[in-house]
Amino acid sequence: MPKDHGIGASSKRREDKRFLTGKGRYTDDINLPGQAHAWFVRSQVAHGRLTGVDTSAAEAMPGVLRVFTGADFEGVGGLPCGWLVTDRFGQPMQEPGHPVLARGKVRHVGDPVAVVVAETAEQARDAAEAVEVEIDELPAVLDMKAALDPDAPLVHDELKNNLCYDWGFVEENRAAVDAAFETAAHVTTLDLVNQRLVPNAMEPRVALGDFNPATEDSTLYTTSQNPHVIRLLMGAFVLGIPEHKLRVIAPDVGGGFGSKIFHYAEEAFCTFAAKQLKRPVKWTCTRSEAFISDAHGRDHVTRIELALDAEGHFQALRTETHANMGAYLSTFAPSIPTWLHGTLMAGNYKTPLIYVNVKAVFTNTVPVDAYRGAGRPEATYQLERVIDKAAREMGIDPVEIRRRNFITEFPYATPVAVEYDTGDYNATLDKLLEIADVAGFEARLADSKSRGMLRGLGLNCYIEACGIAPSQLVGQLGARAGLYESATVRVNATGGLVVMTGSHSHGQGHETTFAQVVADMIGIGEDMVEIVHGDTANTPMGMGTYGSRSLAVGGSAMVRATNKIIAKAKKIAAHLMEAAPEDIELKDGRFSVAGTDKSVAWGDVTLAAYVPHNYPLEDIEPGLEETAFYDPNNFTYPAGVYACEVEVDPDTGKVTVCSFAAADDFGNIVNPMIVSGQVHGGIAQGVGQALLEAASYDDYGQLLSGSYMDYAMPRADDVPFYRVDHSCATPCTHNPLGVKGCGEAGAIGSPPAVVNAVVDALQRAGHTGVTHIDMPLTPSRVWAAMQG
Amino acid sequence: MTKVSMKVNGKPVSGEIEGRTLLVSFLRDTLGLTGTHVGCDTSQCGACVVHVDGKAVKSCTMFAAEAEGCEVTTIEGMANADGSLSTIQQAFQDHHGLQCGFCTPGMVMSAAALLAETPKPTEAEVRHYLEGNICRCTGYHNIVKAILAASGQDVGDIGGDAIAAE
């Protein structure tokens, strides 16, 4: 029987009413008295020397308050990078500067050159047209391999080449991996591209800076997944504002998918300009601008090789990847192709020897950073594609070859530096085969054939490292920040309570699920718990939401703080009932003395804490408020198996996703409805990557897919209803809720299933030469593949 | 500047606007009705859908002046008179048809227009009708489900929606 409240219940979301009635409060909904508006002038060329910016005509335009250029930011810090990767020779990565506004050179289409601030957004936009930017255009560096040619133009003149780093993982294993390939019975090689994507949260970014001249306090309202991180990075590294004089507020945020983790130039600009002009300064991004200023995702080019013995057991794995950094290092960019990618190359399999090489490259393109899954989709795609190819080459069933290589004993230390705590990959595979009705495939194939359509079935496994992250471990790996999380639980006198969390909700429903957890622990109604997030002034220092970390790390901090509350409340209850604290039990919101009929209600205890007339003041302080921080001692490892069935039109190459099934192991689950929703959304993004989406540049560095007219977002009629299951749960062993995280799984697990299915359809139709098609599998690409 | 007058959510309103002012800007900036959202600048995403004289319209694609004398309904005007959620709004909550909430106003307005035209749409009709509304969070599953449920159809078995073992 499903639960109707607390942990495990599909509680309806309390967030929904405000969103369904137009009462949400997104950053662009906020307007401050005296607010001025900013419009960015951006480079229209990919690479060039900036020889002049003439602002005089713009400054004379109606309503214009001031035009800022790079010269105004002399002495102001650049945008910092939060992760230092050390290359395979022990040297630090090359780390170029990243100015708020371009100085000397422009390095990608969209690089901000100047900003007009005017009374209205329209006046600022009009005047921006009058800013004259002189650029001596240079050849654009676009192809990653060409960028590493010794004669290639330099994206950053101060660097010795366009190579950010050449990373080997695990470098000491390289010789052994190479040796295993020499003696392997079979080697499968696959060249593939994990194409560049644009995250496209539906809410474009917005920044609104404010400054109070009397108190010298700065406030930034921004579309961020992690307001404390922005406060720290912008305050300490860019603008030199101490944290106690800087408040960052991320109110309702309309989706992030990673793209709103990073500290962007526009945030620093609006905060800076508000202080200069002594007026609030607001910038609202247009979608066209988002395409050339939001960090992009993926963009890996990989050769992967899998060595197998004669029975299909994996002997060794070797990859070489070129990873695009774009023109500058975005906040966490260097970590994505390395520590969030190389560490996952074991997948669900006991491959004994693995070597991953990644060359990160600067190009004249928009910076690339984390996008839903961030490194893990790239790892999963390579691995699950090469396994499918190997199975076909060796004549082994794709399900069987996976089973044959599954890790079955836990904990399991992979050869790529992580230790999986739990899992049961056979169980999720069995569940997937059931919910996808794989047994019924032949009948569906016959039906498709009768209609002249090709049909294919693809499946794959995935594993991800979530609950980011153990601070000491990531510190050793180059992270320049801790990745703990925080919570303060403030109980009010009348028994209701407020949880202030360092996590941030931008669609995940924390206000509902976090309340479920705390209410369940105490045994009170969920409506007695309020969740506060997104404002550095009233939440403890937290690292925000990404990497499927909110419940696993933020939830754990909240559980700890709640346990402290319960421990103190038990002491108060013991005093009220003249009993020993260790004899006090808490159940359903009542404290009782074990073995007696004495009890007091939760509300009696909370009232006593704040009206301490009868209270053990010599032993404990009044009040009932506790803060906890939680730093995990390992990642969590959600895993699952996904299956996709497609029909391919042999005349046009058009692919239709007929069904999609997902069996996930997320450990324990707080709200099954929300978890399913997270998987649904991830699958659509993965199907979008597999079939539709691509950020394409021309040879001059112009983004060809720069709007929704050209960049194919998945729409309602591109996807089917999904079948999802998360009943195969092996709880996480090292966090108090036993949760693993579910936010990214869908996007990680789904692209290979779709591509495997299309290749399967073509193979079944006799196109035996088609072993791979690069994403997105557009009709033209599929049709061309069928023509040989 | 020109004066424009219309009825929004049943109330007469007017304002001084530039000729180039879009209906969505008039609603958001002049009237402060910020429930209608702007998610793109090419009339693709549908976050700004409102009803103008009963028809679903992308309010970023229409000048405010073109709505002179019209009856406009926004998301703020969709709840029941007592403030409770309307059938469609309630179905979105019941079936988890929204996550970040940004596309939601447009989705609800489009859904209402669809059900006004087609009271019992098929799944395919719902998906086709939503072609002009982009959602990045939900994968559309629960949006389509919510709209079918709002039309009074049984959605109990869609997607399996298996619940984790206790």
Automatic annotation (TrEMBL), chain A:
Lineage: Bacteria, Pseudomonadati, Pseudomonadota, Alphaproteobacteria, Rhodobacterales
Compositional bias (Basic and acidic residues): 1-19
Domain Aldehyde oxidase/xanthine dehydrogenase a/b hammerhead: 21-139
Keyword Transcription regulation included in the entry's annotation: no
Organism the protein comes from: Rhodovulum kholense
UniProt keywords, alphabetically: Molybdenum, Oxidoreductase
Protein name, per record: Xanthine dehydrogenase molybdenum binding subunit apoprotein
Superkingdom as given in the UniProt entry: Bacteria
Any GO molecular function: iron ion binding
UniProtKB/TrEMBL annotation, chain B:
Keywords on record: 2Fe-2S, Iron, Iron-sulfur, Metal-binding, Oxidoreductase
Domain 2Fe-2S ferredoxin-type: 2-78
Lineage: Bacteria, Pseudomonadati, Pseudomonadota, Alphaproteobacteria, Rhodobacterales
A Gene Ontology molecular function term of the record: metal ion binding
InterPro entries with a match to the protein in the record: 2Fe-2S-bd (IPR002888), 2Fe-2S-bd_dom_sf (IPR036884), 2Fe-2S_ferredoxin-like_sf (IPR036010), 2Fe-2S_ferredoxin-type (IPR001041), Beta-grasp_dom_sf (IPR012675), Diverse_Oxidoreductases (IPR051452)
Gene source species: Rhodovulum kholense
Superkingdom per UniProt: Bacteria
Protein name according to UniProt: Carbon-monoxide dehydrogenase small subunit
Matching Pfam families: Fer2 (PF00111), Fer2_2 (PF01799)
Family matches, as PROSITE patterns: 2FE2S_FER_2
